[in-house]
Design a protein that fits this description.
alpha+beta, Double-stranded beta-helix, three-stranded antiparallel sheet
Length: about 280
């Protein structure tokens, strides 16, 4: 197994490894790489749904997404689907999966099933590197703050996705809600400080009004989205990505109109986030 950086601050490529036949020793090496990089890319994988599940279960406990439809093969695998006739895609803006849960997800394992001939890349951002590069003044301004994360504006009765051509493939309208987390967390494995806010789900700072919150959040978002903290992964048949939701953002490019894109996603259960 070889692990090489994908870009200076964003992800790593794991080669000479088949996830479907990973040994116990390789699994521990992979855990270490996951902790170090927070984002792993794999090529040329043979990972049918049953092996996708088996690998996920070896790495951690699976948590089911509240809103995505699941696959025919398993109720534990979520479909991230865009049909040829649809204009909207799921996850088309920067976000962190499940930050709206009281116990946010550890990570997500995404497998390519049907890909467009061009486009459909996934962008990622490194929130630990972004925190490290904040000015000392900005670090002091966000020290001790907590932020409210929500899914209601996306999946609620009048949420953004409900008003699009994705509505029919989404469920869970009755399970929307909010959660509050520290703005700066300590990563439970690496011990690094991480900036834990995201444009998709973070609504405002606890105890602040919306307008006041938005000004500072937009400043933080602009900082994270700089090229030195981000990277773009081009999907090919057999590609798999595994990212740590506690220290990354991601977003899916929607630049393949008239073509289908189908991905299978398994999400792993995390733990309560602790403030730095």
């Amino acid at each position: 197994m070889n692990v090489t950086p994908f870009s200076p601050n964003c992800g790593a490529v794991v080669s000479d490894l088949q996830l479907a036949s990973i040994s116990d020793t390789e699994l521990e090496q992979l855990r270490a790489a996951f902790t170090e990089h927070g984002l792993l890319f794999f090529r040329d994988q043979e990972l049918p749904p049953e092996e996708h599940l088996r690998f996920a279960n070896r790495f951690g406990s699976i948590v089911v997404n509240k809103f995505f439809k699941t696959t025919e093969e398993s109720p534990l695998i979520a479909e991230v689907r865009k049909e040829k006739t649809q204009q909207t895609n799921i996850g088309g803006g920067w976000h962190t999966d499940h930050s709206y849960d009281d116990i946010p997800a550890l990570g997500s394992i995404l497998v390519a099933r049907t890909l467009p001939t061009t486009g459909g890349n996934t962008q990622f951002a490194n929130l630990a590197a972004a925190y490290d590069a904040l000015s000392e003044d900005l670090k002091k301004r966000i020290e001790g703050l907590r932020a409210v994360h929500s899914n209601t504006h996306l999946y609620g009765e009048n949420g953004l996705y409900r008003l699009t051509d994705l509505n029919d493939q989404l469920g869970g309208m009755d399970r929307v809600g909010d959660a509050t987390h520290p703005v700066v967390i300590i990563h439970p494995q690496s011990g690094r400080k991480v900036l834990y806010v995201n444009p998709g789900h973070t609504i405002q700072f606890e105890g602040w009004d919306f307008a006041e919150s938005r000004k500072l959040l937009d400043e933080l978002y602009a900082h994270v989205a700089q090229p030195q903290f981000t990277c773009s992964f081009n999907w090919l048949p057999g590609s798999v990505t595994f990212w740590d939701n506690r220290c990354t953002w991601h977003q899916a490019d929607n630049d393949y109109q008239g073509q289908m894109r189908l991905m299978h996603r398994i999400t792993l259960q995390g733990s309560k986030l602790e403030a730095a």
